[in-house]
Specification:
There is one protein chain. The chain is built from 18 helices and 30 strands. With 630 residues, the chain is α+β, with helices and mostly antiparallel strands.
Length: 630
């Protein structure tokens, strides 16, 4: 018995020693400088980045980047690393006038444990997590796909009291796990009292260099913005003012540059931090905007059994950022107020202040959705869906819903030109439209899409569902007949979806909203509210004899009513005003509890027309509180 006990004690002592040794090795591995290896599946190439020497000399760092084929043999890649590193090392020797300044190659090896990795292995197989790169007497720990900031930037226009969120593009990182630090520039009068710090921006500049190969979309933004601000960025002094993903500049920030630093992380590992300095100083805001007065009616979230709904055409940047828009569409609007960097700050503040539960937007740029709306509203508890128009159009509709109020069940989006050309369900409409070759061609050329989303209520009765439809109909003033046909196609698709869902025991309530580009007296609204439009309706003659269709009687079964009524106008631009935007609700199952008042005519016309310094779009948002009928 004693012999067995002694054997067990010796075994435990040996294992404890081995574990201590392994932990010591692991600790040393973690302390090693790293070589970052980017190896993404389905890509033919991989990237290798490291700093040499491992420790900065005189505050200076040299970052090496290599872009190599995964299928290339390791020995070829190591030879390339040897050549580049040796060239740098020998150049430094000559510069330092060392006695033994003869050119010599620096030894480069890839190690797995204490053994060299076979040079005939491919890069894709050789560079594994935990292997080590040896360069002369420097050792590096190989780390695969470390969190990285591909790009970060701030709006060109920063205003006090308007929240700003940087546009972030991350790789191998979670935005929620990243840490963002905000700094305010200290003016020269203050800087004179501070100790000079030559290396203020060293780490961020080197991080930028390390990522330069992977930031092609924004490769020049840091360089150009630095040149624009100061030639000696390293001498700017900064004071940390905030920690968080977004920051709302205060009055004391006016006249100062801002800097944001992002520390990327995936929750376990942290990558190199990257900074961005604003291109301009913080400006005073435009004062109280009319939508902030509307916010007085939306301070509280809606209680269970009800929800707040918003429909809003936010004016796509692809339509606002052009000489035609500046010179002809909106000549009264200052270029700064027409820029997306200015407008998006107003838009985000406006949307967040409505405390809505469902938001349907039209004219949503893809980039605005991905970099602004989705992340910012996401931090407020929203999930968002984007549906771009067909063809090469880079804008579309978006539906956001509060995740504490609704759950996404399914999407039933419809491309109208595809429905007409491929779906027999619309065969009768196609047959009638085909009698006019000109009309059919116009319909087929339209990029219109119906975004149709099924949501399930989760705050009260989970048996309640919403089928939310949002659309932006064809705009041309001489095409009311086309808009009516597009509406008929949309409603028929909604009816088909309802029938399909009812077969599964789901009975949703319908909301049909958007920019319908039609006055209240137009055929679109007669069709929606009376459930029919007759062949003798005047709008069928809008396209002239060439586009006239006989026997175009259309009908539907939905019971719809306008939740916000028919405002005097929802679109107000120079030389044109009209009510074009609507929220139609299922009259059998939903009821309007309250309509948030529209801005006054004096507010709308204070700066001539829309958009302007206090209105970010040429349209006005429709906002209403809706309740379920028992």
């Amino acid at each position: 018995m004693w012999r067995n006990l002694f054997t067990k004690i010796k075994f435990l002592q040996r294992e404890t020693k081995n574990w201590t040794l392994r932990r010591s090795v692991m600790s040393k591995e973690l302390e090693l400088p790293r070589v970052a290896v980017r190896n993404v599946p389905n890509e033919d190439r991989m990237q290798i980045t490291f700093q040499y020497p491992a420790v900065a000399v005189d505050g200076k760092k040299r970052i090496f980047n290599f872009d190599r084929l995964k299928a290339e043999e390791l020995e070829k890649t190591l030879a390339r690393i040897t050549t580049n590193v040796s060239k740098h090392a020998n150049k430094k020797k000559k510069k330092d006038k060392e006695e033994a300044a003869e050119a010599e190659d620096v030894a480069v090896k890839l190690l797995n444990g204490e053994d060299e990795v076979n040079g005939l292995k491919t890069n894709g197989d050789a560079w594994e997590e935990g292997t080590r790169l040896q360069i002369a007497d420097h050792f590096y720990s190989v780390q695969l796909n470390i969190p990285a900031v591909k790009s970060i930037n701030l709006p060109d226009c920063l205003m006090a009291t308007f929240e700003i969120c940087p546009r972030l593009s991350l790789e191998f990182a979670s935005e929620g796990e990243c840490k963002l630090l905000w700094f305010r520039e200290l003016k020269k009068s203050i800087c004179k009292k501070l100790k000079r710090n030559e290396n203020t921006e060293t780490s961020s500049e080197n991080s930028e260099a390390a990522l330069s190969d992977h930031r092609k979309d924004d490769s020049s933004n840091e360089e150009s913005n630095t040149k624009q601000i100061r030639k000696d960025v390293g001498n700017i002094k900064w004071s940390q003012i905030h920690v968080g993903h977004c920051y709302t500049p205060e009055v004391k920030d006016i006249g100062h540059l801002l800097k944001v630093e992002c520390m990327p992380s995936d929750g376990h590992r942290q990558g190199d931090s990257v900074t961005f300095i604003s291109k301009t100083e913080v400006l005073p805001g435009p004062g109280v905007c009319p939508f902030e007065r509307r916010h007085q009616h939306t301070k509280q979230l809606m209680p269970p059994g009800s929800f707040r709904f918003v429909s809003y055409n936010i004016l796509a940047d692809c339509y606002a950022d052009s000489d035609f828009a500046r010179d002809f569409l909106f000549p009264y609007c200052p270029p700064l107020a027409l820029s997306i960097d200015y407008r998006r700050q107003l838009l985000l503040k406006e949307l967040m202040g409505y405390n809505a539960d469902v938001i349907c937007l039209q004219e949503v740029d893809k980039k605005v959705f991905e970099y602004d709306l989705k992340p910012v509203l996401g931090r407020c508890g929203f999930l968002g869906l984007l549906r771009l128009k067909t063809g090469e159009v880079a804008e579309g509709t978006a539906t956001f819903f509060r995740s504490s109020k609704f759950r996404l069940v399914e999407q039933y989006d419809l491309e109208m030109h595809q429905a007409l050309s491929e779906d027999p369900f619309f065969g009768d409409i196609v047959d009638r439209v085909s009698t006019s070759a000109g009309l059919k061609e116009k319909l087929m050329q339209r990029t219109t899409v119906l975004q149709l989303t099924l949501l399930q209520s989760i705050d009260a009765d989970e048996h309640r569902h919403l089928l939310v439809a949002t659309v932006h109909l064809y705009f041309h003033p001489k095409a009311p007949h086309i808009r009516t046909i597009q509406t008929a196609i949309s409603v028929r698709h909604i009816e088909r979806t309802l029938e399909h869902l009812r077969e599964q025991g789901v009975r949703p309530s319908v909301i049909f909203c958007g920019d319908l580009n039609a006055y209240p007296e137009a055929g679109v609204h007669e069709f929606l509210t009376t459930k029919k439009i007759l062949a003798k309706h005047a709008e069928w003659y809008a396209g002239g004899k060439e586009e006239f269709i006989e026997n175009m009687n259309l009908n539907h079964t939905l019971d719809l009513t306008s939740a916000c009524g028919f405002p005097r106008y929802t679109n107000y631009v120079g030389g044109y005003t009209g009510c074009l935007d609507y929220i139609y609700i299922d009259a059998q199952h939903l009821q309007t509890l309250r309509v948030v008042p529209m801005p006054s005519h004096e507010e709308v016309t204070e700066y001539t027309a829309l958009p302007n310094a206090v209105f970010p779009s040429d349209h006005i948002a429709l906002v209403c509180n809706i309740g379920w009928k028992t």
